[in-house]
Amino acid sequence: MRLKDKKVIALIDEDFEDLELWYPILRLQEEGAQVDLVGKEAKNKYIGKYGVPAESDYSFSDITIEDYDAILVPGGWAPDKLRRFPEVLDFVKHMDQAKKLIGQICHAGWVLISADILQGKKVTSTPGIKDDMTNAGATWVNEAVTVDGHLISSRRPPDLPEYMKVFADKLAEQ
What we know:
This protein is α/β, with parallel strands linked by helices. The strands form three sheets. The chain has a seven-stranded mixed beta sheet, with helices on both faces. A two-stranded antiparallel ribbon has the order 3-4. It has a single domain, classed as Rossmann fold (3-Layer(aba) Sandwich). The longest helix has 14 residues, at 160-173. The protein has helices at residues 18-30, 78-82, 86-97, 109-114, 130-135, 160-173; strands at 7-11, 34-39, 45-47, 53-55, 58-59, 70-73, 101-105, 122-123, 139-140, 145-148, 151-154. The chain is globular. Helices cover 32% and strands 23% of the residues. The relative contact order is 0.18.
């Protein structure tokens, strides 16, 4: 279990993309990582775009970001909600400054845009937010997974196996 000592935050809000939340969580847990679902409220049930529920373990105010090795931002419509919370933006900025892993897929790039950490970065996302990403100063590429230092980005659910292999490998190296 190469990730047994790793702690990861998975951010959550309503209308997350079901596969983009659950596949990464299960993949990292298979390798022994502790993955905490963190949302506005602790022990709250959030519903994904396709009806799959997920219950948050903690609220934003319950955690200490320094205790974590990585953060995952799922796609769907949740990122548009998540980026409105100053705590979420602070989490992402901290992880960026500390050079800890930040994983984002699909529309999750909106959170990184609002955290203002994309200037000069090479990223991918769903093509639907390509203009948003480039307007934030990033170089957008159409690849299944893109790595720029500690930032790992991916486009959409069919890319999840490649995205999570790279993410887990990089987490194991930290």
